[in-house]
Design a protein that fits this description.
It is built from 6 helices and no strands. The chain has helices at residues 7-10, 12-28, 34-61, 66-87, 102-118, 122-142. The chain folds into 2 domains: 1-31; 37-142, no CATH class. The model has no long low-confidence stretch (mean pLDDT 88). With 154 residues, it is an all-alpha fold.
Amino acid sequence: MQVGPPLAFTDVRYLITALAGALVGMIFASRIGKSTERVIIIIDAAALGLFAVSGSTRAINAGLRRLPALLLGGITAVGGGSIRDVLSGRTPKIFERGELYAIAAIFGSAAFLLCDWVGFNREISTIVGASCGFSLRLLALRFNWQTRAVRSEP
């Protein structure tokens, strides 16, 4: 969208949070176990919801309509998770068969955009959207909800 510089460079809190997370990850990398994996899953689900809302917010603030904002919310969330997975040497969740990942991102983005359209204040819309994406992702993992294949394999 090329509307201003990246948020991480205009609000130093984003950059500090990312750097702090990287530092914590480096310190505790050798101690990853079952309980740590659960925490990482929860953080990933929260990030999915928050990035979906941030992408949609950025699109709305740039003057785009709701459908492009919905798509950009989903792309922002899935793209961020994909970059993280690639950098950590894993297959991105979006490419894993049956993962309810992009749908959770779109759901969070849609919830945010609906609340914004109805006229809720931005903070409430953000909380609702991020919570919806987060909750759907965790529910999908907990109950093993999966998407069906678009085509069957031979």
